[in-house]
């Protein structure tokens, strides 16, 4: 890499880092303001800050494409405003060479983002989710939102949260008899023993009879269910809290059970194609810097980058959700806005020479 290539790459890299820091900081601040109203004795502000800190790696990985777009606009725009790009072009440096130099740091950052999405963000996000859900356990309250419903051995099972060790939190087991409810069990926690054997802890069981009900409380009770603990853990997590390998594994399990796996497939492709999205947006930024934004102010470039980024993100969400609603492969839905940006950027770049 020549000195000019390094100079362009460093300009884009530093601009990206500043933009990423601003975006993540704004997200952290706005989320804190929104969530602080939920602070209570069972959910102190320290827990809220811990949850937000755990979610920072995932937010960083999520903002990489938009930060790449705005960072490229700002980095190359700064060079354009000082006529350095004009000097490079006058010296015979083609646009594609400048674009290649700008893409190199973004590609490395995008690959780093993939590593964060696979190894760091999922574990941190899952810890954050567990802290949030455990606040309902402190006052013995069970929430029937935010967890997962399952059906096994003709029983309907609700799990509020789970961790990787095979421990479940906030379990409710409803056992029907034809059209009537036979019994309902509530357990604070459940621990996997072996095979299909589980142990329920701090159990309250309600038996329903035709003329009365009976309530029993037990410290421990056995529970047999033919679902693997790793599948229960994955089922209790939101798709965006899973790594690429976890999404692939659970997607395969759902397909084998002939269940709908489109949400997990969509999330898999949205994460897997982030590097491609980052490069496509960089090409759009390049075509803009050498075109309509050549003489624009820094504020104008940032505003344009935000607008393009919002349009891209909304298009990604729109076509992704549309793929689920219209029942066509999520890969196509996620690829459409990326390909549109890539083709538009390439066409505009060719026109600029």
Automatic annotation (TrEMBL):
<keyword id="KW-0472">Membrane</keyword>
<feature type="transmembrane region" description="Helical">
    <location>
        <begin position="63"/>
        <end position="83"/>
    </location>
</feature>
<dbReference type="GO" id="GO:0043190">
    <property type="term" value="C:ATP-binding cassette (ABC) transporter complex"/>
</dbReference>
<dbReference type="GO" id="GO:0055085">
    <property type="term" value="P:transmembrane transport"/>
</dbReference>
<feature type="transmembrane region" description="Helical">
    <location>
        <begin position="95"/>
        <end position="116"/>
    </location>
</feature>
<keyword id="KW-1003">Cell membrane</keyword>
<comment type="similarity">
    <text>Belongs to the LptF/LptG family.</text>
</comment>
<dbReference type="InterPro" id="IPR005495">
    <property type="entry name" value="LptG/LptF_permease"/>
</dbReference>
<feature type="transmembrane region" description="Helical">
    <location>
        <begin position="331"/>
        <end position="349"/>
    </location>
</feature>
<keyword id="KW-1133">Transmembrane helix</keyword>
<feature type="transmembrane region" description="Helical">
    <location>
        <begin position="12"/>
        <end position="33"/>
    </location>
</feature>
<keyword id="KW-0812">Transmembrane</keyword>
<protein>
    <submittedName>
        <fullName>LPS export ABC transporter permease LptG</fullName>
    </submittedName>
</protein>
<dbReference type="GO" id="GO:0015920">
    <property type="term" value="P:lipopolysaccharide transport"/>
</dbReference>
<comment type="subunit">
    <text>Component of the lipopolysaccharide transport and assembly complex. The LptBFG transporter is composed of two ATP-binding proteins (LptB) and two transmembrane proteins (LptF and LptG).</text>
</comment>
<comment type="function">
    <text>Part of the ABC transporter complex LptBFG involved in the translocation of lipopolysaccharide (LPS) from the inner membrane to the outer membrane.</text>
</comment>
<dbReference type="Pfam" id="PF03739">
    <property type="entry name" value="LptF_LptG"/>
</dbReference>
<dbReference type="InterPro" id="IPR030923">
    <property type="entry name" value="LptG"/>
</dbReference>
